[in-house]
Specification:
The complex is a heterodimer. Chain A is mostly beta strands. Chain A has two helices and eight strands; from the N terminus they run H-H-E-E-E-E-E-E-E-E. The longest helix of chain A has 20 residues, at 8-27. Chain B is built from one helix and 32 strands. Classes of the chains: A mainly beta, B mainly beta.
């Protein structure tokens, strides 16, 4: 009952805390691995935006950036803070999300998957008699993953794809986001193997 | 490691292929076979024009961002220019005409001020197929204003001699597809008056106006420019008139029973559809191409929701759009292109207030 009375944001927070609790509990199973404590990702991002949902004839192809900060609680589980922005002729899209990430490390590569929750901010820059543009902020949910390939111990090349489900301008959008860039690692968790 | 590197390359190539596919919105305006059309609906009580995108396959309506778009006072009739760049709305309350530019990618409207003056109570608009001239029917001042259209800006300029006087209280009018003839209805007299059109200059056709039924409310000309059809709201009939192709003169061929209070008539090829406001249905007829004889299609009349007021044929001929004043909505009915029969309402969108007119982009 207490949870039912919480707002959607609070419910999301409770969910994330539950996930984190599971992550920490599972961490004891991952002591044999080594992983960075922090991953900082930045790079190019493409968004195929479901713009017909608010009146466009075609889907929109937008280009921009994607940045992520991942705090690895265990070698396998982490928390991802994600921000991206894509731009087009009339359209600007931002997404700010957070959520759990699971990583499967293999030597110098890594596969990962994540589920993210947050907000989407869509802007359409068109002129009407009463307005210079339209802005809408709504919920955003993403599910996706990617592949990391270590270039050096500190730097990794990443490709990532996400399905985004957002609700702006009174309609639901089903978008595809693809990002690629460099990941910088900082710190470490787990035991380093004895040489 | 080579395996990991190869995987990465394949993934990158796949992503590149994905990002390369599809089209940007900016290319939509040049698409030869668009997957959708834009439609604009006059909303008199909102002093606005609503914009929708209609899917060509499902007929689903999506409100265009920013719709409805503010315009003049009490817009009653709306028309999309053949270039799909401009929309015109006749403002009954403001005695003027609004010009809107259409955003080429989104389809949103922006009114260009100042508005163009018309006569008193411009109730209806028609345009030639080339988009060179716009005609406005002024009900109270009993005249027709004719404007030439600037193809670049959409601006209207009254032609010499405009407005052209008509008999008292013209109610509706229709331009022949070749734009050679203009036919004007008088509801009080129950007659159709004919004019020749020469670059926007109207000249009455010699001879008496043709008597049709009582309370004629709507008129249209078939694409072959062979027949004129008139919906008679008091008689509950539709009249068929033949056109003299050289003079434009009309001859009444006959009248056929419809539902109650017909208010709209449209033609699609060999089929004729009459919206019956009182009986809330559509009477559908097949037309004999040489004689103009109407034969009611099997299962006609077809249900059309509450109190249909106007009809618009889909540019692809797949749907009949019907506006309802009481339901405050526009519905899309499927057309069986083989038989002409109508299906049920595939899609319906609320317009919040009563719509009075609709125009769909080509």
């Amino acid at each position: 009952m207490a949870i039912e009375r919480l707002g959607s944001c609070k419910r999301a927070a409770v969910f994330i805390l539950l996930v984190l609790s599971v992550v920490i509990a599972v961490s004891s199973l991952s002591l044999g691995q080594v992983a960075p404590r922090w991953d900082f990702f930045g790079g190019y991002s493409y968004l195929r935006l479901d713009s017909p949902s608010f009146g466009y004839a075609n889907w929109s192809n937008l280009n921009g950036f994607n940045g992520e900060i991942v705090f690895n609680v265990t070698p396998r589980w982490g928390v991802t803070l994600d921000g991206s922005g894509q731009y087009g002729n009339q359209l600007t899209v931002y997404n700010y999300m957070i959520g759990p990430q699971y990583s499967l490390r293999r030597d110098k590569s890594k596969f990962f998957g994540h589920v993210l929750f947050g907000k989407a901010q869509n802007t359409v820059n068109i002129l009407t008699a009463t307005r210079n543009g339209f802005l809408s902020v709504g919920r955003s949910v993403a599910a996706g993953g990617g592949y990391d390939w270590d270039l050096t111990p500190r730097f990794t090349l990443r490709v990532q794809a996400d399905y985004l489900n957002t609700y702006t301008f009174g309609a639901t959008q089903n978008d595809l986001r693809i990002s690629t860039g460099i990941v910088f690692h900082h710190g470490h968790i787990g035991r380093r193997p004895k040489l | 490691m080579p395996r990991a590197g190869a995987s990465l390359i394949f993934v990158a190539l796949g992503l590149a292929a994905l990002t390369g596919c599809g089209s940007s919105p900016s290319s939509s305006s040049t698409t030869q076979f668009p997957s959708s059309h834009t439609a604009y609906v006059a909303l008199p009580t909102s002093n606005a024009v609503a914009g929708y995108r209609i899917d060509n396959n499902s007929a689903s309506f999506t409100s265009i961002l920013g719709s409805p778009y503010p315009g003049g006072t009490s817009p009653s009739s709306v028309l999309v220019h053949p270039s799909n760049r401009f929309v015109y709305a006749s403002n009954q309350g403001g005695d003027d005409i609004s010009l809107f530019t259409i955003d080429s990618t989104l389809g949103s409207l922006l009114e260009v001020l100042p508005r163009t003056a018309a006569g008193l109570t411009p109730a209806s608009l028609v345009m030639d197929s080339g988009g060179n001239f716009l005609f406005a029917l002024n009900q109270v001042s009993s005249s027709i204003s004719v404007y030439s259209i600037n193809s670049g800006t959409g601006a209207l300029t009254a032609v010499a001699g405009s407005p052209f006087a008509t008999f008292a209280n013209p109610f509706a009018f229709a331009l022949s597809p070749s734009a050679k003839f203009l036919y004007v209805l008088n509801g009080n007299l129950g007659r159709v008056f004919a004019y020749t059109n020469n670059s926007g200059v109207l000249t009455p056709v010699v001879g008496l106006p043709v008597q049709v039924g009582n309370g004629p409310l709507a008129i249209t000309v078939d694409p072959a420019e062979t027949f004129v059809y008139v919906a008679n709201s008091i008689d509950n009939t539709v009249s068929v008139l033949s056109i003299n192709s050289s003079t434009g003169a009309l001859t009444l061929l006959g009248s056929y029973a419809t539902g109650t209070t017909p208010t709209s008539v449209v033609v699609l090829g060999q089929y004729l559809y009459v919206a019956n406001l009182g009986s809330s249905n559509i009477s559908a007829f097949s037309v004999a191409p040489t004689t103009g004889v109407l034969t009611q299609i099997t299962s006609s009349p077809f249900a059309a929701g509450s109190a249909p007021l106007f009809e618009v044929i889909d540019p692809n001929g797949k749907f009949l759009y019907v506006g309802s004043q009481t339901a405050r909505s526009v519905s899309a009915l499927s057309i069986n292109t083989t038989t002409g029969a109508l299906g049920g309402a595939l899609q319906t969108t609320s317009t919040s207030v009563s719509p009075s007119s609709m125009s769909v982009s080509k």
